Predict the 3D structure of the following.
Amino acid sequence: MVIGNKIYFVSDLHLGAPALRNNRERELLFVDWLQSIRKDACMIFLMGDYFDFWFEYRKVVPKGFVRSLGLLAEICDSGIPVHFFTGNHDIWAFDYLPKEIGMIVHTETTVMEILGRKFFLSHGDDLGKKDFGYQLIKTFFHNRLAQWAFAKIHPDLSFRFAHHWSKKSRLAYKDKDHGFKGVEFEEQYEFAKSVLEKEHYDYFVFGHRHIILDEPLSDDCRLIILGDWIKHFSYGVFDGNTFTIQKIEEKKLKEYSLTV
């Protein structure tokens, strides 16, 4: 198979979200998109919250996602690297995704040179965040003892609890404005600016915020926030020279009974 020359970035699919009723349609659209980009992709980045909830027991993984994970495994087997960044919703990814699917899993911020450009890559949920409560919860979720204890709960109960928690997330409150209010209020923007003062990067690429943002940080550096596959159906493309944010065409969305 001939490997292409484009890098694709996508974030915040939240597959399986109990607050959403179109999980199957969104996964099928994502599979369609993967089939279309594999022709010219040389690398694919899933930038966090691919799943709305994910927890791997030693011998059990969550039900569903067969179509997309199967295709991702096929893409990995074909020689195209797929990088999976854990987000705040799928933080508990252990060895199943790398061993069974073949993806490269990142649990921390990663710096990488791609096609001659320097990238700072992260899901972005805790970058520059001043919320002590959130930091405390995330530290707890990373705790090995907490993970061990959660694994002792029967999956029927643990997933019921997780889905109840998810229903209280911002996905469930569509009438509440969590959108862009200006770069001066974006924690990811302030964080990237502070990092850039110490070291140069060509691109900062984040997810998490569910907004689309392409903002210059300097003459030769840009902040990219990728949007999502709930409202925007957006993704990033880097060809070695330019980085663009693109969207799934409305015609394609209608094929899967999805609207923006």
